[in-house]
Predict the structure.
Amino acid sequence: MQMSTPKQQRSKTQPTTKARTTLRISVKLASMTPEERIGAEKDAREGAVIGLWQAGRLSTREAAAELGLGYYDYVDLLARKNIPVLQGELEEGEVQRLVQSIQASQP
């Protein structure tokens, strides 16, 4: 079974457009300290970007850039949140092949 990312899944079903769109989301919360507000804004931004990535609206690299992260830092963020990077089920032996591939590419 071939694995695909949300972006790859989207490309099979929806045409890709090059126009950029800015989304603005407003959420009213109870009053909080400046530190709490900064944390809430960060959490909301991460949640929105990850949600768009899971829906196939952003590639992994685009999502990472939106959060000011590198590709691998974004993948680490997903891992910390227990969000799978690959979608679908893995066939028997596929996990071992992926691990070997990652280990072979490490310096």
